[in-house]
Amino acid sequence: MTAQRPHAEDQHAEELALLAATDDRPRPPGWRLSPAAVVTYLLGDGAKITPKYVGPRRLIEVAVSTLATDRALLLLGVPGTAKTWVSEHLAAAVSGDSTLLVQGTAGTAEEAIRYGWNYARLLAEGPTEAALVPSPVMRAMRSGSIVRLEELTRVPSDVQDALITVLSEKTLPVPELNTEVQAQRGFNLIATANDRDRGVNDLSSALRRRFNTVVLPVPASADEEVEIVTRRVAQLGRSLDLPEVPAALDEIRRVVTIFRELRSGMTEDGRTKLKSPTGTLSPAEAISVITNGMALAAHFGDGRLHAADVAAGIAGAVVKDPGSDGVVWREYLETVVRERADWRDFYRAARDA
Amino acid sequence: MPELHYGVRHHGPGSARAVVAELDRQRPDVLLVEGPPEADDLVHWVADAGLRPPVALLGYRTDDPRRAAFWPFAVFSPEWQAIRWAIQHRVPVRFFDLPYAYRLSDGGLAETGPAATGDSPARSGRPVDPIGELAAAAGYDDPERWWEDVVEHRGMPAFTAVAEAMAAIRESAPEDPEDLVREAHMRKVLRETRRAHENIAVVCGAWHVPALTRTIAVKDDTALLRGRTRAKVAFTWVPWTYGRLASWSGYGAGVRSPGWYHHLFSTGDDVVPRWLVNAAQVLRAEGVPMSSAHVIEATRLAETLATLRGRPLAGLTEVTDAAEAVMCDGEALRLELIDRRLVVGERLGGVPSEMPAVPLARDLAGQQRTLRLKPEATPRRRELDLRRDIDLRRSRLLHRLRAIGVPWGEPEDERRGTGTFRETWTTRWHPEFAVRLVEESMHGTTVADAATARVVGAARSSATLAEVTALVETCLLAGLSRAYPPVLAALDVRAAADTDVQHLMAAIPALARTLRYGDVRRTDAAGLATVLGGLLGRVCAGLGSATGSLSDEAARDLRDHLDRVHRAVGLLDSDEWRERWLDTLGQVAGRPGLHGLIAGRLTRLLMDAGRLDTAAVRRRLRLPLTVGTPPAQGAAWVEGFLADGGLLLVHDDALLDLLDEWLADIDGAAFDDVLPLLRRTFGAFAEGERRAIGERVAAGAAGRAAASTADAAVIDHERAAAVLPTLSALLGRAVTVADGAGHPDGVNHAVGATDERGHP
C-alpha cells in the first residue's frame, strides 16, 4: 500500500536531512532547522533543494520570522494560491511533522481545538487523563510542534475564540481534571483563510491581534505562473502514475495566458478589456486542467497533449456559474481567441467542447 | 588644517549627520557646496526662520521662464545641513558647480528639460546614486542602513572610505562628458578659493570627489570651459514637498522614501519602535484600532526579519514588512496609507513672504500687463466676448488660474445657452494668492505650465469618471492643449473601468460640448472624438441592461440622462454616431418591461428623430393606455412622452383622442393615483398650449376637424415666404417652400429638429 499523496516531510525527507546536516545557524527552541534553512527549504537553493513555493522571497521570510517570534501566522489569499501548500511545508520544515491538522468547517466544534472525551471511559471512570481525547492543538502544545488550522474563517466565531487563550497564554486549561497543558517551546499555529470568505466568520479583533497576516498573491508574471504549473504538473503526474505525456509547454502557456487574462479582466497586451468570470482561476486550477488534459491524452488520445484535451477542462474551470460565466467565456472566445492566428486549433476545440 | 572633501550621498541623512560632525571637527574658513553659483546670494535666506525645508532652489531663464531647473533640499540633505552649519558659524558659503547659465545657453550642454537638477539622471551609464549601488552590492536595499551599519558603526573615517570606493568605481566606469565639464569648473573654483583660504571644506556628491583631488593642468580645465556662452538666469527659493522629492526624476533612485529619511535624521535612537509607533498613529487616525501590543509585535518581527536576512539593523524593508504583517491584516489599503503618509510623507516646505518673486508670479504679472487686467482688491465685473482675441486670452488666463487654485476671477454665471461666446467674470484679487503662486511654482514656471501640471496630476489621481470629465472641460476653457492627451487617457481608463452606464452617460454631454464648441475657442481637441466615440459605444452596449427594473426615482434619473445624451449626440456633426444612438434607442424601446417613463420618452425621441411615423406612435401609445396596464404606468408613459410640451397634442388629433379616451376610461379609484402624474405633465405645458388642448377637447372630434381645416385655410403663403431670406441667412443655406409646408407633420418635424440641435 502506498499513500496517494505522501506527507511533505516524507516526500522531501532527504532535502530536510541535507539541510539539517549543513545548517550551522542557531535554531529557535523546538525547531528542527534554523529560520534561514526553513526559507531555503521553501524557496530552493537552485541545486539540491527544490523550490516548493515560487513567489516573493520576502513573504516567506515574514512567515518564517513570524513563527520564530512565536506569534501565530495567518496565511490569506484567494483559493488556489498555495496557502495550504505553504503551511504544510512550513510545518514539515519547522517541526518535521505536518500531520497536526484541524480542518475548519462550519461544523468544527470546540473539541477539535481543545479536547474531547472518550464517553465510554468518562462514564466508567469519570473524568480522568485517560478519558481525555486531545485535539491536534493540544498534542502540538505537548510536543512543541506546529499545528495547522485550515480555513479559519469557516469556523464559527465562538469556536474561534477558543484559540485566544491558547495563543496568548500558551496554555490550555482542563478544568475537569483541574490541570492544564502548557505549550512546549516550538509550539505555534499556522492558520489559512480564504480572501473570498471575508465577512463570513470574520476574526474578532482579539483573535486577529494574535496573528501576523501574510497575503499570498497570485503569481506576478506569466513566466512565473507557467513555471509553477509546469513543476506541479510534473510532480502530480509522477505521484498519480500517469503515463508519461510530454507536457507541452505551449499548451501550458496557453492555459496560463487564458487564466491570467480572464482573471485580470484584460488581455496580456493591455489592449482589450474583458469581463471576469466568478471563479478564481488560480494556478491550482490551471494545474488541474493540465493534469486532466494529460490523463485524457494518455488514455484516450495519441499520447500527446492537444488543444482539444485542455479545451473542455478550461471551459469547465471558467464557467462556474452557467448564466453569467457562459457569456463571459463565449465573449472571450469570439473576441480574443478567434483573433489569434496561432490559436485556431484551440478555438475550434473550445467551440465544440 | 588642510582642505577636506566630503563626498556625500545626495539626500542621505547618514551623510548629513556625518558632514555636520566633521565640520564641527574641522572648523573650516570657507565652505564650498555643489550647487549653482548664481544662487550664492540666496544662501543667507537659510538663516531665515521662514525658509522651512523641504525647499528647492529654482533657476530659470529670465527671458524664457519655461526653461528652468530645481535643486531640492530636505532637512536631511547634507548640503542643507552644511549650509546651515556655515551660517550658524558665520563661515562664507559658495556654490561651486558649473553655473546654470552655462548649461542653459544655446551653445551649451544638452539640456534635460525643466526636470533637470544638479544631478542629472544616468544618461551615460554612470550611477545616479553611487553610494546606493555600493550598498546594493553589499546586499542592502536601504542605502541609509548600509551607511549607518558599514560606515558609521564601524567607526571608520567615513569620507575617506567613501572617496576611496568612488575612486575605485570611477576607474572603470564610463565618464559622462557633462560631469567632466562640471568637475573642471569645480576645480577652477577650488583653485581660486585656495588662493584666499587654507582651511576649506567641500561638500559635493561622492561621485565627484576623486575628480577634485586628481591633478589636472589648469589649461586643460580652461580649455574645457572655454567658448561657453551664458544665458541670463535668475534664482529663487520655492517650497517643495516630500511627495515631489519622491517622484523627482533627477534623484529618482535616491529618495523613494523621504519620510523615512526624515525619520532617520530626526530620530536619534529607537528608530524602529518610533517608526512603528508613528505607523500605528497613522492607522489610528483613520479609525483602525491599533494597540501598543501591535507595535511591540511589529518591532519584534522587524528585528527577527533583520536577523533572518543577516542584517545588523532593521531597515525600511523590514519595518514595512513587519507593519504589513502585524498591523495591516492583509488589507493593501492600509499599507498604501502608511506608504503615503509616512514613507513618503506629506510635509510641505515654506518660504518667507519677502522672497524675490517666483517666475510664475512674474509670468502672471507679464500677462496681466499685456491683457490689461489689473489685480484689484475690489470686485469688478467683466464681460468677455470670446470672439475677440484679447478677451479669449483673458478668459483662458482666468480659467488657468482657477485650475492652479488662484480663483482671481469667479465665472458669474455658468449657465449656457445665452451664446457660446460670452463670459461674465467677477475679478477680485486676494493677497493670499501671492502665497499660492509661490506654492504652485513647483509645478511650473508659467501659468500655463503650472495649470497643465495640476490638471494632469488631478486627472491621474481622480477616482470617478465625472471628475475627469470636468477636467476635460477645464482643459478646453483654459486652453491647455498639452494636458489633453493625459486627461483623455485617464478618461478612457475610467470609462473602461466604470460599469455604471449612467456615469458614462453623464460624461458625454460635456465632451460633446467640447468637441462641438472647441473651435469657438480654437482648441485643438484631437483624440477627443475617439474617446467620445468609445464612450458612446459603451453606453450603447450597456443601455439595454440599464433600463431594466427601475424604480420611479431611477427612471427619472435615466430619463434625464437619456435626454442629455440625446441632445449631445444631436450636437455632434456625425451621422454615424447619430445612427448608432438612434438604433440603440430603437432596440431599447422594443424591450418588454420598460418603465413607463422611459418607454414614453424613447418613443418621443424616436418620433422626433423621424424613426417612427405617427401611425407607429399611435400604436405604441395605445398599448400602455389599455386596460391591461396599470394606470400609473400609463401616466408615466404619458409624462415621458409629452415632457417636451403639448404642441404635439394640439396638432395630432388621433393622439389626443387616444389620450382622451384613456383618461375617460380610468375608474375613480385609479384616477386618484394618476392625477398627480398627469398634473405634473400637463402643468409643465405653456399656458397657450394648455388652452389650445382644452379647447380641442371641449370642441369634440367633429368640431376639431372643422377647426383644423379652417386653420389651414388662413395660412398666408406670401407672408410666410417673407421670412425665408432671413431664415436662409441664419441657417447658412437656402430655404425654399416645399410642397405640403404648413402640414401638421411637417411642423412637428421642424420643431423636433430644432430641439435636438439644442440651440437656435
Summarize this structure briefly.
The complex is a heterodimer of chains A (353) and B (760). Chain A has 353 residues and is of the alpha/beta class.
Protein described:
The complex is a heterodimer of chains A (353) and B (760). With 353 residues, chain A is an alpha/beta fold. Chain A has two domains: 208 residues, Rossmann fold (3-Layer(aba) Sandwich), CATH 3.40.50.300; 131 residues. Helices cover 48% and strands 11% of the residues of chain A. Chain A has 16 helices and nine strands. In chain A, a hairpin with a 4-residue loop joins strand 6 and strand 7. In chain A, helix 11 crosses helix 13 and helix 12 packs antiparallel against helix 13. The radius of gyration of chain A is 23 Å and the shape is globular. The model of chain A has no long low-confidence stretch (mean pLDDT 86). Chain B contains 35 helices and ten strands. The C terminus of chain B is likely disordered. In chain B, strand 3 and strand 4 form a beta hairpin. The radius of gyration of chain B is 36 Å and the shape is elongated. Among the domains of chain B are: 244 residues, no CATH class; 79 residues; 95 residues, no CATH class. Chain B has a four-stranded parallel sheet, sandwiched between helices. Chain B has a three-stranded antiparallel sheet with strand order 4-3-7. Chain B has a three-stranded antiparallel sheet with strand order 8-10-9, with helices on one face. The longest helix of chain B is centred in the C-terminal third of the chain and has 27 residues. Chain B is 58% helix and 8% strand. Chain B is α/β, with parallel strands linked by helices and 760 residues long. Chains A and B meet through helix 3, helix 4 and strand 9 of A and helix 13 and helix 14 of B. Chain A: This is ATPase. Chain A: It comes from Mangrovihabitans endophyticus. Chain A: GO terms for molecular function: ATP binding; ATP hydrolysis activity. Chain B: Pfam families: DUF5682.
